[in-house]
Amino acid sequence: MSLPIAPKPAIRRFHQARWDEPVIFELSTPGERGVLVTPIEPGVRDAVGDVVADLPEGLARRTPPALPEMGQMRVLKHYLRLSQENLGADLNVDVGQGTCTMKYAPKVNERIITTPKLAAMHPLQDPADAQGALEIIWRTERMMAEISGMDEVSLHTQGGSAAIWANIAMIRAFHEANGEGEQRREVVTTIFSHPSNAAAAKAAGYDVITLHPDADGYPDLAALKRVLSSRTAAIMVTNPEDTGIYNPAIREWVDAAHGVGALASYDQANANGILGITRARDAGFDVCHFNVHKTFGTPHGSGGPGTGANAVSAALAPFLPGPRVVREGDRYSVREAGPLSIGAIGPFHGVVPNIVRAYAWIMALGADGLRAVAETAVLNNNYLMKRILEIPGASAPYATGRRRIEQVRYSWQELFEQTGVGSEEIGVRASDFGMHYWTSHHPYVVPQPFTLEPTESYSKAELDEYADVLAEIAREARETPEVVRTAPHNQTVHHTHHDDLDDPDRWAITWRAYRRKYPDAVGA
Amino acid sequence: MIGLIVNPVAGIGGPAGLAGSDGADVQRRAAERGARSRAAERAERALAVVAAGRPDEHVVTAAGPMGEDAVRSAGLRPIVVWHPRDPSSSSDTTDAARALADVGVELVLFAGGDGTARDVAAGLPEAAVALGIPAGVKMYSPVFAVGPGAAGALAAAWLDERGLPTAEREVLDVDEEQLRRARVEPRLHGTLRVPYRAGRTQARKAATPSDEQAAVRTAARGAASRLRPGVRYLLGPGGTMAEVARELGVEKTPLGVDVVLDGRVVVAGASERELLDEVANGPAQAVVSIIGGQGFLLGRGNQQLSARVVEAIGDDPVMVVAPEQKLIDLGGRPLLVDTGDAAVDARLTGFASVVTGPTTTSIYPVHAPENEGAVHAT
């Protein structure tokens, strides 16, 4: 051995762990135990009697559950091995998951929510015993109101489509309360708004009108004016759109909607590029929502349920979901949903641990910090955009040559035409370098798409590393395309057979279903 | 098993400035001007993608320059099932396509342009699947991959996954003599079933139908649900309109305009004259989809729906029906009308409300290239 050690190569020589770990059910050994449940103390048994015998017959299982039987250490190894076979958000440069806003969710906030004062609280606890938790909910609502410029906020939904559903449900209830429910049957959205806006409106019974971009790639104001009428219930738009393009005429859009008596709903699920810079209410919007897991530093869906913040003008406040937390003097109480409310969308007060995390995140940053988040995210995005557009074969269609906000939907179409290597294959190859790259971009408007969103969390060095990897894969696509086409080479799994996921006869999402559909694979 | 047909004179007239390559005379003149066809070289580039993953693959083809040579240059193994006449002509393309289908080729690759597509379509049975490697001068038909590499990647995926989803696409071709007189009127000559590859994850987050056929059905259902009694509907040609007819339970001529009134066909395969007669009988509306890859609503493949017919219908003359993906595939280019009458075209321009489903529409711009003096078909 001799010093100095060899320098690391420019592109990381990543290799994912491969453990060939079986499914946990296959590791079960009859009789093995991880925990022996403490016997009931005699005093307790005398006091409560035979609880099992008292169970209603319909609730008692006829056969014990087929849980895996294994020792603690084996369980620990099993899950640690699985975790090593994952490209976790805390390990890779996660900017390839554009529109998802993968930012750092501070670990210290996990400590805060595991305090027994919160973790042991029951949702039906007497409000007198839950003043601290209720105060945090109330204060978080007020901060969201300030951030959006709106009058009232509910943290009731779990975000995403549930929050968008709450938006359209409130809009529908508003028009019905004004006697215009029958007349206003149309909702207008744009092709680059998040598709859940169209989907939620359709599910709420509306006819949905979708607008395509104008010749410059911007949301088409002339098209909007063409379709608005006394039949319009609302416009439901994302801004910036999923392309990262900010609608410069957003105020005119809202005014045009109001001009025909329609409401304006703003999908701000990802407000990462505009925090502290623009506010929905200042542009005239009546309704908006944030995904707390996108914008306010709480973990994404797979890390637990999400949280949405639905913010509305005073006119829409009676329609917010309930129950609500209200402050009287310095005391907090719970008020059931009022007569005009759309009612409960999530249980109780929503996902309280997320509300606490978001509260901690906002309080740690302060107003200036929130603005710095947006400015840093936009700066990071524009730096990364410059790097990506230097890669031959990559482009950013729509509003060509104009600035984007916090993300960009790029295209590999040129590279695809030249080499036959598409975005899907590039995404798989990126995992060989320990990078995540996502290709779900419904609707599929931009050909061979990829969407990068660096957020405020990533350093310049990490953005450079990501761009270097994509440049390397683009080079491979030209010089050694079979390397890309046969990827991954350094990963745990090879290609998944997605046909199995589309066919009800073949998919197996539980162990029981797997045993039923593939008896030969499991054995007797 | 895949097959290959190369049109050895495809595209030869383009560089020679002859606006196409149809006919022996043009081909001779192009050759005199020193033009060479790129078709073989582009076919070879497509097959090279297949060869990278499957170096021992057999490709069923026609002899010599009609495919065999390109298969060999790409390092793959030809199985020759058609020997072209000398000199070869467009009927050899049709005969070769038939020969490939007869021996059970599942995917026919062909290198050429619209004329080649037309000849291939003529030789293939209805269920056969084909894909164009773009190598021609005119490519109005949306049956071509975006490039040779992309065609090869689709063919490789076809082999790897033992088939891909397919969709029916129009085969359009322009009369080149017209083109040389600066008049573009592509006619619809039939359809080809082409493979496509939806992004693996494209459909995962979607509430809308991922499968193209399902999307066409949804759009057709949207059209059917908007039809009113007592109105004559002039159903244009194409796959989407065929689906509308299926929704209504009526027969449809694939390439013609059929008049439907109260759930039954009044005139099938109507001429402009017959359409004018029908429109004179009461309220009417034309129902059209997007013809070909260029986004034409009127004036391409459905010339029976003429300026006079549109004028005679009066208000709200056209209902446009298409799945959203057809709009998306235009890549931001507008829909087009070219009825030959500037005033009628002007009335139709602006925005079209495109029916995409029973409760969904999309608003999309419509232009009239003739009115803008646009240069086309270069």
Can you offer a commentary on this structure?
The complex is a heterodimer of chains A (524) and B (378). Chain A is of the alpha/beta class and 524 residues long. Chain A has a domain at 113-364: Aspartate Aminotransferase, domain 2 (3-Layer(aba) Sandwich). Chain A has helices at residues 42-48, 51-54, 72-84, 108-113, 116-119, 131-148, 160-177, 195-203, 221-227, 250-259, 292-295, 352-389, 413-419, 423-431, 460-479, 481-485, 499-502, 511-517, 519-522, and strands at 93-96, 152-154, 186-190, 207-211, 232-238, 263-267, 287-291, 308-312, 324-328, 331-335, 408-411, 435-437, 449-452. In chain A, the strands form 4 sheets. In chain A, strands 2-8-7-6-5-3-4 form a 7-stranded mixed beta sheet, with helices on both faces. A two-stranded parallel sheet of chain A has the order 1-12. Chain A has a two-stranded antiparallel ribbon with strand order 9-10. In chain A, a hairpin with a 2-residue loop joins strand 9 (324-328) and strand 10 (331-335). Chain A is globular and about 75 Å long. Chain B has 2 domains: 2-195, no CATH class; 212-367. Chain B contains 13 helices and 16 strands. Chain B has a 9-stranded mixed beta sheet, sandwiched between helices. Residues 199-209 and 373-378 of chain B have low confidence and may be disordered. At the A-B interface, helix 8, strand 4, helix 9, helix 13 and helix 16 of A face helix 2, helix 6, helix 12, strand 15 and strand 16 of B. Strand 4 (207-211) of chain A pairs parallel with strand 16 of chain B.
CATH H-tier superfamily of the domain at 113-364 in chain A: Type I PLP-dependent aspartate aminotransferase-like (Major domain)
Biggest beta sheet summary of chain B: 9 strands, mixed
What value does the Rg of chain A take, in angstroms?
Answer: 26 Å
Which range best describes the helical content of chain A: under 10%, 10-25%, 25-40%, 40-55%, 55-70% or over 70%? 25-40%
The pair of chains with the biggest contact is: A-B, 49 and 42 residues
Q: Based on helices, strands and strand pairing, what is the structural class of chain A?
A: alpha/beta
Looking at CATH, which topology of the domain at 113-364 in chain A would you report? Aspartate Aminotransferase, domain 2
Question: Tell me, what's the shape of chain A?
Answer: globular
Estimate the strand proportion of chain A: 5-15%
The average pLDDT score of chain B comes to: 86
| SS field, number of helical segments of chain B | 13
Number of structurally distinct domains of chain B: 2
Q: Which stretches of chain A are low in confidence, meaning pLDDT under 50 for 5 or more residues running? A: none
What is the CATH domain class of the domain at 113-364 in chain A?
Answer: Alpha Beta
Q: Roughly how many Å apart are the termini of chain B?
A: 36 Å
- Walk across the major sheet of chain A and give the strand order: 2-8-7-6-5-3-4
General form of chain B: globular
Q: What can be said about the biggest beta sheet of chain A?
A: 7 strands, mixed
H/I helix tally of chain A: 19
Catalytic activity (chain A): N(6)-[(R)-lipoyl]-L-lysyl-[glycine-cleavage complex H protein] + glycine + H(+) = N(6)-[(R)-S(8)-aminomethyldihydrolipoyl]-L-lysyl-[glycine-cleavage complex H protein] + CO2
Domain Glycine dehydrogenase C-terminal (chain A): 374-486
Enzyme class (chain A): oxidoreductase
GO biological process, one term (chain A): glycine decarboxylation via glycine cleavage system
